[in-house]
Structures are given as C-alpha cells and as structure tokens.
Amino acid sequence: MNLRSVKTNKKQNDPDVWVVLFFIEDVVIKGRLYCYNYAILGSMPVKIKEKEQAIQLRKQGKTYNEILEVVQVSKSTLSLWLRDVGLSVPQKQKITALKIASQKRGASRRHEICIQEIDTINQACKQDITSIAKRELFMIGLALYWAEGAKKNGTRAGVMVDFGNTDPAMLKMFILWLYTFTKTTSEDIVLHLHLHENHAQRETSIIVLWARELGMTVEHFGKTMFKKHNPKTVRKKVDDSYIGLVSVRVKKSTTLNRRIMGWVYAIIATQK
C-alpha cells in the first residue's frame, strides 16, 4: 500500500487525511501488520466528524473556548482545523467583545488579589512597628529632607527650607518634624501648590483637600505654580485622582536649612 493507492473522499491536501495516509505507508514500509493499518483507517471517520462539528460551530460565531467544550481536541488541532474558516463582521465583533470582557474580568480579579495581598502585608508590618521613638523621628526627618528637600548649590548659597512631595502622609510627617525639632510654628509655614495647567479649574477644591490632609488652613497656601502642558510627556494621572504637588516652605529659614544639611553631613561622616 502507498499514498496513491488509498481511496478517500477528502481532498489530498487535507492535512488530517495526508498525515494518516503518510503514516499508513510508513507502517507498510516497516513491515508492520495490516490489521494495525486497518485500526488507523477506522479512526479516520471520528476525526472527520469532530472537525466538521468544530467548523459548523465556528461558522455560528462560537469562540475557540466554546468549541472546545463540545469538541474534545487540543487547541492547536482546533486552530489548524479552523484557520481557513471565515467569519462575518458581526461574528468577529462579537468574539472581540467576548475577548475584551474576559480580559477585563481577569484584570479585575488580579487587581483584587493584589489589593488583598497588600492589605495582608500592611497588617503584618504593623506588628513590626508599633511606635516611633523621638530619636527615630529625628533621623526620619533628616532622611526625608536629604532626599526631597532644597539644598544649596554653587550659585545659590542661601536657600530656605523647602520640601515638596505628592504624598500627603510624607508632608505631614515633615511638618511634624519641623514642629518637634526646630522652632518652626504654623505661622512660619507657607504652602505652595504645583499643578498642571489642565487642572486649573480644580485649583480651589484641590487646595481645600490638601489643607485638610495636612491639618493646615487654606490661608497657609501662597500662589499656585502652574506647570505648562508638554504634548511629549506621557502622564499617567489625568483624572480627578491627580492632586498635584505641594511644597512646604519655612519663612526666613536659610540658617535652618544650613543646620539641617549639617546634620545630614554628620550622618554621611559616620560612614567614612
């Protein structure tokens, strides 16, 4: 028996029939029993039936996953069977919509799991840090200013205390540090909001929000600094969750700034 002598009602370029016929010829060449060949031939109608069923389901606009629930084959086999099956525009739109909905459900579930894990970690970490000693608070404040505060440079020897960030909790911590370790009072503090010009209409409401978060008053805020729009910049926060950046400045604080940086340099010196 060879490929030319096998009779089939399928086209010779059909991938399923071709594979089976080629395997039969290979068996004969190797001298295997004919009854084994017959067993292989006997399995062909089952495959053909499954393929035709899969094609009909696809033409009805069913997705691969929906078809696999009915036709028990591998996804790679199904993809091979259906690669030439065309779909109407409405069917394509329906399948695309189902895919997008599935992706959104998956993303939503992953987000929920992430939030749960973060909450679990936060609760566990509370057991590690139950209070902060005064010395620890002092070092925390220095580290914060070292990272985010204004420093002198070659052209500006005199710089006031100026600490800015987008995190209300960090700013509140720094204000507490000023009250605790310097002679700064609330009357010495001036706050400045730095805001993207696209959110200028929200300026007043954002200032009210910041004042509440920091335990300050609206009167503590000076002139708002507006950032011009740059089309090349890809901004992640463009909705109402964006509240800008606030800088905490201390009036007449050049000497205080030098003292804070002196403490920072003392920390650096301990590492030499």
Low-confidence stretches: 1-46
Radius of gyration: 36 Å
Taken as a percent bin, the fraction of beta residues is 5-15%
- The side-by-side strand order for the widest beta sheet comes to 1-4-2-3
Our count of domains comes out at 3
Q: Secondary-structure element sequence?
A: HHHHHHEHEHEEH
Helix count from the secondary structure assignment: 9
Shape: elongated
Instruction: Please give the alpha-carbon distance between the first and last residues.
Output: 87 Å
- Structural class of the secondary structure composition? alpha+beta
Biggest pleated-sheet summary: 4 strands, mixed
How many beta-strand runs? 4
Mean pLDDT over the full residue set:
82
Q: State the share of residues found in helices, binned by percent.
A: 40-55%
Describe the structure.
Strands 1-4-2-3 form a 4-stranded mixed beta sheet, covered by helices on one side. β2 (189-196), α8 and β3 (225-227) form a beta-alpha-beta unit. The protein is of the alpha+beta class. It is elongated. The chain has helices at 15-29, 34-59, 64-68, 75-82, 89-126, 134-148, 168-181, 203-214, 254-269, and strands at residues 162-165, 189-196, 225-227, 245-250. The chain is built from 9 helices and 4 strands; from the N terminus they run ααααααβαβαββα. The chain has 3 domains: 3-86, no CATH class; 88-130; 134-269, no CATH class. Helix content is 55%, strand content 8%. The protein starts with 14 loop residues before the first helix and ends with a helix.
